[in-house]
Amino acid sequence: MKQSIPTIVITEHDSTAELLKLYLQEFDGFSFLAATSNYSKAYNGIKELTNSLVIIDVSDYPEQALNFVSKITTEFPDCRVIALSDKPDVDLVIRAMRVGATDFLAIPVIKAEFLGVLAKLYNDLTGGKQKKSKCRVITVYSNKGGVGKTSIATNLAYELAKITKENVALIDLNFQLGDVTTFLDLKPSFNISYMLQNLDKINEDFLLSTLERYKDTSLYVLADPPYFKQVDDVPLKDITRLFNILRDTFSYVVVDTSAGFDPKAITALENSDLIFLVTIVNLPAIRNCQRCLELFDKLGLDSEKVQVLINRYMENDEIKAEDVEEAIGKKLYWKVPNNYFTMMSAINKGVPVSSVNPDANVALSCKNLALMVSDSIYRQNLTKKNGMV
Questions:
Q1: 131 is a domain residue
Q2: What DSSP state is assigned to residue 246?
Q3: Beta bridge mates, 163
Q4: 129-140 b/e with 16+ CB inside 10 Å = b?
Q5: β 274-279/306-313 pair status
Q6: What digits encode the pLDDT tens for the residues 122-172?
Q7: pTM to 2 decimals?
Q8: Domain range for 259
Q9: Which of 110, 178, 260, 330 is most buried, judged by most C-beta within 10 A?
Q10: Do residues 170 and 268 share a domain?
């Protein structure tokens, strides 16, 4: 019989307690023990338990709540704490994690996110090991602007999360002109500058609690810095450290870089398992692609992990895919069809293209691309109608 972890909910709000009780009933492994707003009563209950879970709402009286979290996590090391708030600002999240909370969720609590946290905590409390596939870092790159690199990165990351249900990180490494948050209509509290300044404090719980989660998916976004002055003199070794930390937490990391060979972009390329070199079908872009491949070779990048992707491809174009392959001396990995109006509609709405029209050719191509690079069984069902390998 599966071990059941007793759970105590501390909140002033009956609606929050009832919702959490319903969610807990859907997870075989946790049992709802009690709900209370009285810290003394909660403490007396916790001290009688081993391997317990406390879910505490810190919205109304954060100082009192965080002091209580510090007390119980110090006295009862087998107790795990999920903190909740309807105002989850950056400082509050950091303070909660520092006093011992293992996770921090926003109110109203999203069921999928809550159940995911429960699964992780159950393995932690019962000594089980979560089976996580080896992380793949995928960098979407172009040495030429305006080819749709960010569109590819954003939609690839979204489709990977949607298909595999595994944790996917989307990293905006374009420190000057990043657009990932615009493409997904996000206003994150944290950004990559903060992460790079606090590498010694970052662990899996911190990442999943502070990176901006996209709606109710398993996609987490790390945004570019909002101010240019935040990106001065970033040591390249810190970017490598960040990649290593992300590898320990996520199954896939998709990186959108700046256009050009700046040191940060090169560091991302060197730390990648797969590089998508994005181009479009016109002579200047193809020439730039050719030069880029030559530079990759000089940098010592493994040619097997560098794959060329054509964006905005039209079958009736004067320049054919075969012409591009001949010019660059490399077989194309994928073709994303041109569908200007659907893609622009998605960009202007700040949503993935499949949210605008899941049956559009460009949406299907992005989905199939994600299937192709994933390590999941879904890859077996890939239809190559919109792409090529």
A1: no
A2: H
A3: none
A4: eeeeeebbbbbb
A5: parallel
A6: 877 876 544 445 789 999 999 888 899 999 999 999 999 988 888 999 999
A7: 0.68
A8: 136-386
A9: 178
A10: yes
